[in-house]
Hints:
This protein is an alpha/beta fold and 315 residues long. The chain contains eight helices and twelve strands.
Amino acid sequence: MKRFLMLVLLLIAYPLGLPAAERVADFPVQKLARHTYVIHGPLGLPSNANRGFMNNPGFVITQSGVVVIDPGSSVESGRMVLRQIRTKTGKPVTHVLNTHIHGDHWLGNQAFTEANPDVIIMAHPNMIQQARAGGAARWIALMEQMTGGATTGTRAVVPSTAVRQGKQIEAGGLHFRIHAPPRAHSNTDIMIEVVEDKVLFLGDNVLNGRIGRMDDATFRGNLNACRVALAVNARHYVPGHGKSGDKRVVNPFCTYLDTLYKEVGRLYEEGLSDYEMKPLILPKLAAFKEWSGFDEQVGKHVSLAILELEQASFE
């Protein structure tokens, strides 16, 4: 009898089977529009301290269910998002949309298939292809490595439904329009417009307060994604990382990309190498020096911009 009572107490205290210290902390929910909510994750890289959670999951409550966007980097991130959804509604999650291949945004899918095996998980066809071709396994391993094992136990649930440029999804009386500019942040990118709420989820095509990796990106493609985003004329923009806001959220990151790429182009014409360019370009980017990741990424971005300029010369 005592053992039974102890088990009941443990289940009450830890309903998901993990001590609270081992879960992703509950982050506050911000209501952006009538149906749309966002959870702003911390800036910085995945780590043991943040247990891998550092993106901006969103969710939209429809008449019949909930549509989730980018549930995070692990099953525990996804469970945290589900807990926060339950503070707003008891409706089932019917759809999950993943903005791109980078695992900090989508490895939380597992939590939603556990909660509803019939959930529809959607992404760009290139993302599905890359994930099935080994990308999923690489991201599982990378997240475990970066977090010191905090994401261990996460399975990669790869999206099964492809969505392309211009696709409009109807769910519970609301409409979700897909914008998929090519060769942007990862060549697997979708941006999701919640039509009735005038909200645009940008994925990592736009960041706010953070300078991210451009290893899979192109500067020209990413700048085009910025133009596409602004043309939507949304009332609310949700970046992949950093705080949401109006269209002024889009402009700074796009200015960073444009300034760096143009300056690299100018100095490339003068015959300078990447290590000679960097100290000359840094003053032009002074407005971003306090952004998370700036020191780690800016030199890499100069080198990547040179490669892109060289490739463009052969097109």
